[in-house]
Amino acid sequence: MAYVLQVDFKMDGPFGNEMAEAFSDLAKSINSEEGFIWKIWTESPETNEAGGIYLFETEAAAEKYLAMHTERLAGFGIPAVNGKVFAVNEALTKINKGPVE
């Protein structure tokens, strides 16, 4: 069973192409995290929020990443991080074309 990690936090930017340039090395490093499958990056310049939706192989891997990422974001000056881990209902997700494999 796969697990989704949803993370969001307040951030003053950058957003869009500037965000892509600023965080490309970070994005590449996420690929080597234990149990990582994929990530969708999220942003809202209008509300100064950013985050992501991640898919991990196990709940333990998702929880471990959330703890590490929360600590890393605190080091970037982002003290409040919202993070939740959910089990994926793969049968229903496949009906709706969700990439869970």
Automatic annotation (TrEMBL):
The keyword Oxidoreductase applies. Keywords: Monooxygenase, Oxidoreductase. Gene3D superfamilies: 3.30.70.100. It comes from the Bacteria. The keyword Lyase does not apply. One of its GO terms (molecular function) is monooxygenase activity. NCBIfam families: PRK11118.1. PANTHER family: MONOOXYGENASE YDHR-RELATED, PTHR39169. This is Monooxygenase. The lineage of its organism: Bacteria, Bacillati, Bacillota, Bacilli, Bacillales.
